[in-house]
Amino acid sequence: MPGLLITVEGVEGSGKTTQCRLLAGWLRKLGHRVRETSEPDGSPIGQAIRGLFEQDRVRLTPLTEAFLFMAARQLHVAEVIRPALEAGELVLSDRYADATLAYQGYGRGLDLQTIRELNALATGGVLPDLTLLLDLDPTVGLGRLGARRLDVFEKMDLAFHRRVRQGYLEIAREEKRRMVVLDAAQPAERVHQELKTAAGELLRQRGLARGV
Ligand code: TMP
């Protein structure tokens, strides 16, 4: 497919949303057509699925959680990501398939191979060209969340968030070529510089560099 898919992952409070916005702005300034999107809420059904995780009384098993995120992902790929890639756009997604491995797999204890198989179905083989992992100690990330209403994952204990962090780092160790780990404890401007370096490198490799 002519476009590129860049995904951004990390624990709660790692600054993904801010960094996605900054990176999208930089890529647009370079003249790229950028599609900013996110999971699970990258489609209207995905937004409804996200709403389930914000309700206090909903109780789900880890496998049901995975199915819901996969349903959101399949629609997201079909309706947003694949069409944008086919149109030659640069797609920047705040979370994607690794999030289910990290949260439902390493965090909740669901079998990793099952999640990989579900991800293969849900994504239809649309893999990220680059994944930027904003690594952060979850005590710092959770401390950044402030007083707003928390979803079911944000309310989980520290041990869960530590497993999620270690899970992401494990995926990054296994997939060194695709994933770049960045220290999200640094000031946002410094993290942005490092994201630009990693994204610029990908653009150069693919012959898409424009003033990088
Ligand atoms: P956020 O990324 O905006 O914080 O919200 C998404 C929440 O859903 C976050 O707590 C992580 C969680 N999540 C999963 O547990 N599995 C997934 O596959 C995805 C995409 C998100």
Quick tags:
5 strands; binds thymidine-5'-phosphate; alpha/beta; 212 residues
Q: What is the end-to-end distance?
A: 22 Å
Query: Mind telling me the CATH class?
Result: Alpha Beta
CATH H-level homologous superfamily name? P-loop containing nucleotide triphosphate hydrolases
Bound chemical compounds = thymidine-5'-phosphate
The number of distinct β-strands equals 5
Instruction: Please report the number of helical segments.
Output: 8
What's the topology here?
Layout: E1 4-10, H1 16-29, E2 34-38, H2 44-52, H3 62-86, E3 90-94, H4 97-107, H5 112-123, E4 130-135, H6 138-143, H7 158-174, E5 179-183, H8 188-205
Parallel strand pairs: 1-3, 1-4, 2-3, 4-5
Helix pairs in contact: 1-8, 2-3, 3-4, 3-5, 4-5, 4-7
Residues 12, 39-40, 53, 69, 95, 99-100, 103-104, 151, 153-154 line the site of thymidine-5'-phosphate.
